[in-house]
Amino acid sequence: MPTFTREEIEHLGDLARIALTDEEITRLQGELNVIADSINKVQEVAGDDVPPTANPVPLEAYMRPDVPATPLTQAETLAGGPKTEAGMFVAPRILGSEE
Amino acid sequence: MTNEATNELVKLSAAEQAAKIKAGEVSSRELVDAHLAVIEAAEPSIKAFLKVSADVAREQADAFDNKSADEKAALPELAGVPIAIKDMIVTKGIETTAASKILEGWVPPYDATVIEKLKAAGMPILGKTNLDEFAQGSSTEHSAYQTTHNPWDTERVPGGSGGGSASAVAAFEAPLALGTDTGGSIRQPGALTGTVGVKPTYGGVSRYGAIAMASSLDQIGPVSRTVLDSALLQEIIGGNDRRDSTSIPEGPRPMAAAAREGAKRDLKGMKVGLVKELGGDGYQPGVEARFNEAVKKLEEMGAEIVEVSCPHFEYALGAYYIIMPSEVSSNLARYDGMRYGLRVMPPAGVPQTAANMMAYTREAGFGDEVKRRIILGTYALSAGYYDAWYGSAQKVRTLIIRDFHNAFEKADVLVSPTSPSTAFKFGEKMNDPLAMYMNDIATIPANLAGVPAMSIPAGLSDDGLPTGIQFIAPQQRDEVMYKPAAALEAALEEDWNGPIWKDLKAPWLDSLAK
Amino acid sequence: MAEKLMKYADATKKYDVVFGLETHVELCTKTKLFCPAEVSFGGEPNTQLTPVSLGLPGSLPVVNKTAVDYAIKLGLALHCEINEWSQFARKNYFYPDMPRDYQISQYDKPTNGNGYLDVELEDGTVFRVPIERAHIEDDAGKNTHVGGADGRIEGADHSLVDYNRAGVPLIEIVTKPIEGAGDRAPEIAGAYMRAIRDIVRALGISHARMEQGNMRADVNVSLRPSADAPYGTRSETKNVNSFRGIEKTIQYEIRRQAARLDEGKEILQETRHWDESTQTTAGGRVKSDADDYRYFPDPDLVMLHITKEHIAEMEAQMPEMPRERRNRLKSEWGLTDLQMRDILNADALDLIEETVKAGAKAAGARKWWLGELSREANAKGVSLEELPITPADVAEVEKLIAAGKLNDKLAKQTVVGVLAGEGTPDEVVKKHGYKIVEDSGAIEKAVDDALAANPDVAEKLKSGNMKPMGVIIGAVMKATRGQADAKAVTKIVMGKIKA
Question: Where is the Amidase domain (chain B) (predicted)?
């Protein structure tokens, strides 16, 4: 049965790219432990003989013909961008932890 | 048009409104204006809409009205009737937010497949309805923008996540709406607002353009006031779409015909299964009573009632709360402040890097419930827990599919109450995620198994609030549930001396009439 | 900080080398892997996107059949088991150039598993490289770093993102750990990469230009004390994009790791980068659980079913594989190993074969492409393929020579004309009026004139001193505008001085 520690929730916040506040971490710790308890019993019935189902309707992939379609214009593509420059999206610097 | 006429018009079902258009008694533009008038009057107390697209709707209505008789004749039955869209479905040129701050101001450059189909069918779009942020919740209280009120009691929630669509239809702001249903988000609000809500077979309606919450569970479906209206709408929005790999190759089933057949109220030869695990404990007495009466009605119309057992349903909620957040954690990764929506830079003293920008954007842009699910899903997928959690949940899914398979050997259609209780008060379950999750106990199995299910009004509980009954049919046999649902609707309306909403006090309509 | 290195010979004597390659090959489909946005390079930024490749909310992926066809062909070429059912999974991680912040790749159910590639080394030895898998995945966009030195990510102020490349189909070919290579590991790696390039080009599934990033590799190297010891900790050098760089990376890592091990230091499991300017690898991020990609089956994509019929259809389209083709051409053209290697090194095999197909003799075709034309390409800094002359042109020139219509000198001038854009060889010949003067009367007259004009030379020749013959030939050539045949002129002169 999983028990969520503070460190674990901080780590999950890092993985999920959410800058959780201390208060949120405390609250999530409590809530997630309760939720985890209640969903933990799925393991009881998941025997080795049961195959997993990823998609409820049994289909096989349709393969699209390799034919181009009209793309979005650059203006449409950039329209939603919080920050753009020279036809591109601007990302803050990717490396660096020193300030 | 007089206000009285407006009042009469908006209370008609979508099929009746369509018939008036065909008869030349009303234009699409008049229908749109009538509903816009109701929206204006109702919104201060209902708050179902995040965005009203009045200009777009009028333009579409005029375009329809200007078509030739031949062109109109080639369109589906509901042509010209307006519709409201849950703000989880993208609409070209109309702001789409999923009720989240992180998408505030986003105007999509494309239409969802269902929107293309509605446009092709000549159905004007009235606006975008409220929901729990990214469809995550059962009360619509998790919207980042506003709280939608239940037209039956404005102190209470309309259910969720599609509370906006359900309330809009219940309050006569729209004759029809689209919803999305991942664990009950169409059916549970349907039950709580006295409307009809349908979750089609998974893959029966294209998901292209439905903002993803949990991809293997999400399905777009109709919201309406009558069973026939939902059937007609599902035939329009359904069918194969090559832009959705999970779309079923076959076209929509003959649902309207099944609904019309059902209205004859003859269910001889039909076996209706009561799911043992979805009855008994945990239901509000009034909910249980209306359900039992409804089952009796089905029996009176000739249906044979059989009990079926689905022993793995007790694991459904657990499996759902692993699969759903796992997929949520991945589907919502794209909201990172780079290409659209919100961007929040880290505060001073924190390195101004792309990674930190993303983390502060997501911290500011997502609400508590969404963050809770993302963190839970991140955990469920992470190394070391995948097999125990996600792997096990996918196996439970297999077991639930088998349960349904066995149940449908004994019964043609299954029934259960839709929701354990009637509409609850604002704030009642906000701080207790588990209690909130229990709302979906009866609706979740259908999502896990991909089978079609619908909720229709079963009557008012002892507290005077609507309750719902759920019909579940086998995969890709959606028409099978429409027949008994329409039969029950007809039988109950006879008992009630009219549709359930004749008991709805709608002061906004009164003010309109003055 | 310069790292300590052990001498290569000592390192490979002392330690057993294990290496592996993860090669990314960009497919040359018309559209992207999961949406119909056209793939083309050099377009305006952010103009080759649909809602799907831009990762817009609500958009959904649909797999491109041609990409699957290409994967099957590569699987067949690499002797892989082609799985009847394969599955796309999501690899979750955040990066500004990833439109969905997850990559769609194949994880536990790849399309191709378990194959091998026989690689021929310079000395003719054949080394079998075991293949673990070859799976399909999509590429990310491209970051341009602004504000730092030389456009590098280090020290940049911000980055500009062009998502055009996002969604371009890739196949990642992953080898099993390659053992038993010893000190030939770099050579084997280079030969393997070249073999992969030749195969994907032969299959027509990728342009495979390393310098343009169509092909790049992650290089894993580890050392262990002996061949029966467990694997050592490996380093992973990312995105090496030249054959030479791959060879050097392996060499460098062997030397670096051996030096560390010798000093009793640990090898870190880390990602490194090959620096072309310093010819070294530099340490990057230490692998940690931050690399928890949370793979799971992509719920937007159902299982990919590859039928026996589909495989048979692709099998019928398979061209001859490069190694078999090389061996066949070598014997058809009667070449030695060395001659064949020269052709391969010059990247001239296809051109020579096409020239032969167009009617030239192999020897003639080889002479042009490896001689005159290679020099021209080198001088201009372009590849042979990029020269403005086609194999058909070269074959045409050869035909004119064979028909006695051009001599070597005129042939060269004709080729110069073609390269200068004056038209086809025929057109160049016509334009300049090139032709061998066969009228021996005209040549005789020119010889007489030349001898008369240079009496001292004529004397020397008569006395048996043949050295100044060139003076006469030159004068005759001048008089006939190069159209005389040097041998014929010599013959006539000899006749005259003896007379």
Answer: 30-479
